[in-house]
Specification:
heterotrimer, A mainly alpha, B mainly alpha, C mainly alpha, B: mainly alpha, 0% strand, C: mainly alpha, 77% helix, globular
Chain lengths: 224, 44, 247
């Protein structure tokens, strides 16, 4: 299973390196979202820095949608989906591989957005530990849930509109939890619920959806 | 009765929505059922 | 002869019972039961709001159960898939009504239609979650394919519900003030009766609705099946024509 995962992840990431869609399209989109927020909220009143935690994670979610759509469009393009199914690779491995590739791209986007938020919104980072831990925990959950719904929506003609509708409500806890921790890590506001508890919630989410993906990917790949 | 408007809208909405949905299911069901013989229907 | 429909003697009886119960609910909820000390008459919305919420949870529970039983090979049968789909539609319906009546209750009580308290927010999220499930079901597919896809989607959504609950709950503990208990701790007998009556009536309505909706789903499948048979027949007839005229 793990070998297949690395195989699939490697293929996806190499494809990305060659086509550079994430770097050329998704990343600019992510930064664009930050810029749009600045247009929408008066940059002079100091709102941006105060709400940067929330804006950051909303930008991450929107970018994630694009990255996931992309990850599965690649398969559907040349009928690769059947190829993947018939390749004899372990479905759980395929799931982990695709999720891993998406997670790597998401982490890169998150790093970029962090830079964006620091530069454009004037936010300060007060706790790097929390930033890193939250990003990792949130990304695993987002990648896992995103991969499951990505394959669910992949074969359908309405996938562009269906994927956001399916995925975004499900990952709402990730948005809530990550934003709460970032509020502490980016500005030092004290919370009633300790950041560690939120990180634990994010981890639970990540574990649940990774487990689900491993279990359900076989049946999901089966159908045309 | 205090707040009559809110109560009225609420209760009427409930009956209306459920009633209209029930009606639409019944009508659609009747229309489709016509295409079959009585013996083909899996119920009754 | 009576025209064909999704009704049977049982559903007719159930339907009549529901209507009678609804009449009783109107009587007790709007007339006989007293107004609340604090909420005044707006408490009467609770007699539809709470039953709607409970019925919605029941409906989604049935959807989850049906989805699981379809996925389990030993109990696999399209019955469970159809039931899951029908029940989800009702769940969304009742959740919508729950949110609407909740807002109408909130306005006179809190002064606002909406407040981001834990319960309302979780309910709103549940609503959208299953709207997505219904959208997924509407995608054209072979019944078995659609069943597998929907079953997995339903369970993924369902598994999210407790996580959403905790996330939203913790998120709002900062603002505990806005989470108000919807009923007084000491509740009048008639009020309690009206509430219980509401639950029973809504449960009956759910049973009636889900039966008819289920049968409608069966009919839709039968029609699709027949359309497929017709198409195959036509194709075969064409082929015979071609083969017949070949030298």
């Amino acid at each position: 299973m793990w070998r297949d995962a690395v195989l699939v992840a490697g293929k996806d990431l190499r494809l990305e390196l060659r086509s550079r869609v994430t770097t050329n399209q998704v990343a600019p989109f992510a930064v664009l979202v930050l810029v749009l927020f600045a247009f929408a909220l008066d940059p002079d009143r100091g709102i941006l820095a105060r709400v940067s935690a929330g804006l950051y994670w909303v930008a991450v979610l929107f970018s994630a949608l694009l990255a996931i759509q992309r990850a599965f469009a690649v398969e559907a393009a040349d009928g690769n989906r059947d190829g993947l199914r018939l390749s004899g690779l372990d479905p759980a491995g395929i799931f982990l591989g695709k999720a891993l590739a998406i997670a790597v791209q998401l982490l890169a986007l998150e790093l970029l957005l962090l830079g964006g938020v620091i530069l454009l919104y004037g936010t300060d980072v007060t706790d790097w530990m929390y930033i890193v831990v939250t990003c990792v925990a949130a990304t695993v959950g987002l990648a896992a849930a995103g991969t499951i719904y990505g394959v669910l929506a992949a074969g359908l003609r309405v996938r562009e509109t269906l994927l956001p509708l399916l995925l975004l409500p499900v990952v709402a806890p990730v948005l809530i939890g990550s934003t709460q921790v970032f509020e502490v890590a980016l500005g030092g506001t004290a919370l009633d619920i300790a950041p560690a508890d939120w990180v634990r919630l994010l981890s639970v989410f990540a574990v649940i959806y990774t487990a689900f993906g491993v279990a359900a990917f076989g049946p999901l790949l089966e159908e045309s | 009765m205090t707040h009559v408007a809110y109560i009225a809208v609420g209760w009427i909405a409930v009956f209306l929505v459920v009633g209209l949905y029930a009606l639409s299911v019944l009508v659609k069901g009747r229309r489709l059922a016509q295409r079959f013989d009585r013996d083909d229907l899996p119920w009754g | 002869m009576r025209s064909l429909s999704t009704s049977t003697t049982v559903t007719r009886g159930l339907g009549i019972l529901t209507l009678v119960g609804a009449g009783a609910l109107v009587l007790f909820g709007l007339v006989l039961s007293p107004a609340d000390e604090v909420q005044k008459d707006s408490v009467r919305l609770m007699y539809v709001h709470v039953p709607a919420a409970v019925t919605a949870y029941l409906a989604f529970g049935v959807t989850a159960l049906g989805s699981a039983l379809w996925l389990w090979r030993r109990t696999r049968s399209l019955f469970w898939d159809r039931l899951a789909g029908a029940s989800a539609e009702l769940g969304v319906l009742f959740t919508g009504l729950c949110l609407l009546t909740g807002m109408l209750w909130g306005r006179p009580t809190w002064g606002v239609y909406w407040t981001w308290d834990a319960r309302l927010t979780s309910t709103a999220l549940l609503f959208v979650l299953f709207l997505g499930y219904l959208a997924l079901r509407r995608v054209q597919a072979d019944p078995e394919v659609r069943a597998r896809r929907s079953a997995i989607a339903a369970l993924i959504a369902f598994v999210d519900v407790p996580v959403v609950h905790y996330a939203v709950d913790w998120w709002r503990t900062l603002h505990q003030g806005s989470t108000v208990s919807t009923l007084d701790p000491k509740i009048d007998d008639l009020m309690l009766f009206s509430l219980m009556l509401g639950m029973v009536v809504f449960a009956l309505a759910y049973a009636w609705l889900v039966t008819h909706r289920y049968r409608l789903a069966q009919l839709e499948e039968m029609v699709d099946g027949r359309r497929l048979e017709l198409a195959i027949e036509e194709r075969r007839a064409e082929a015979e024509l071609v083969v017949g005229t070949a030298p």
